[in-house]
Amino acid sequence: MRNPMNNEIKILSPEIKSARFAVLSAGILILTALFLSACSGAKKEEAAKAEHTEKPGEHKEGTGEEVSLSPEALAAAKLEFAEVTARAGGGLLRVTGSVEVNQQQTQQATPLVAGRVERVYVALGDRVRVGQPLAVIASPQIAQMHGKLHEAETKLALAQRELERVQKAENRAAVLTAKAKLDEAEAALKRTQRLIEVGAGAGKDLVAAETAYRTAKAEYDFQNNIALSKELQEARAEVETSRVDVAHIRDEMKSLGAPVSEEEHSQHGDDHKRDTSLIALRAPISGTITERLVNAGAGIEVGKPLFTIANLSTVWVIANVPEAQVSRLRVGTAARISSAALGGEARTGRVTYIDPQLNEETRTAKVRIELANAGERLKGGMFVEVEFQVSGVEAAGEELSVPAAAMQRMGERTIVFIADEKEPGHFKVREVELGGESNGYRVITGGLKAGERVVTKGSFTLKSQLQKGELGEEH
């Protein structure tokens, strides 16, 4: 007998094979579909690129990294080119700067007393001379000091008269009595000496006469010198003390700006006719009034500045020197200053100070040049061009440079446009790092290589196209 199970297996085997074939066919179809989809996407991408391909006569906008011009636009732009060249490190370094007032020749007029401003004599921009009155101040403190000075001078006058009286006190009774006794003892001594000479006197009488004379002489000296000296010394001390008091008050008033003459004590009788509280605030230097901070009638405090005076015969020029170029400068380095305010004229000066601290944002150092300002044509805040003269080792070596006309600013960046030799009308955008400027060339410290061609004349046109392209991308 046949086994039923064996017959069933034989019947099902062809069906299994058919199922396997179906699965394999489905997989092949799926792979084919994926391949065709990929090819279709590639064709669409190529078609999209073809749509954006510049047609003859069309102008392509900047993309932020490059700019392309059609032949017609390229011809209209009339671009000029220059190669990046390695030049010997020249003796000139050109940077920008600004004019500042010479702080060492600028002073503030400041009152040393409190009070009220009675009058103001000057206005902003006026030229003044040293010692010229700028304003008049009414100060109670000055009025009080005038009173103290008058009192001290009066006390001095009394002490001087007392000293004169004491010096003439030789006719006093004690002195006259002592003088009379001395004269009498001197006469007795002479008489005794004559008697001894003629042999009519005794030796003991001579001794007694000499003793009496010495006693009278001592008494007279005491009355004439010792007794009188005490009173005389007291009178002299009083005069000296009064004189010192007067001198101190005068010096104090002078230090506060109040003029005091040596003969002022003779004028105190007229104090009731004049206002002794008034004091003039005077110009400490000659120059120009650059600040006026007070008007008549204003109350003022001690030490509050009322005016600023600047001597503009010399000014400071503050040059902003790039970090890479600071080491080329020294105190004493010559500098040439030019400005629109000077026309074709240029001024010369020398470096007097180099700031040891760099500006962290601009990476520049402030270099100060002191400059004579004949005619005061340079004003504070003016912009100027500064050209430093460097020589010797400082000017040695080579540096890359391109014409300054190739530089364009884009926000915080400085860029140039590099011509593509293989594709005319195609320009790459390159950000560069700049050094100093010399004879119309800018030193390049980074971003370019020697031999690359950059656009000079017409670079602004390419910049405009680049900005239009960036604006189009934003929309």
Question: Which characteristics define this entry?
Answer:
24 strands; 475 residues; 4-stranded antiparallel β-sheet; 6-stranded antiparallel beta barrel; 6 helices; alpha+beta; disordered N terminus; single chain
Helix content: 25-40%
Biggest beta sheet summary: 6 strands, antiparallel, barrel
Number of helices: 6
Measured between the Cα atoms of the first and last residue, the distance is: 88 Å
Please write the string of helix (H) and strand (E) elements.
Answer: HEHEEEEEEEHHHEEEEEEEEEEEEEEEEH
Record the strand order, biggest sheet: 4-13-16-15-14-17
The residue ranges in which pLDDT falls below 50 over 5 or more consecutive positions are 1-12, 48-63, 392-396
Beta-strand percent range = 25-35%
Structural class: alpha+beta
Radius of gyration: 53 Å
Q: What's the multimeric state? A: single chain
Description:
With 475 residues, this protein is α+β, with helices and mostly antiparallel strands. Helices cover 38% and strands 28% of the residues. β14 (334-338) and β15 (346-354) form a beta hairpin. It is rod-shaped and about 185 Å long. It starts with a helix and ends with a helix. 23% of the residues are buried.
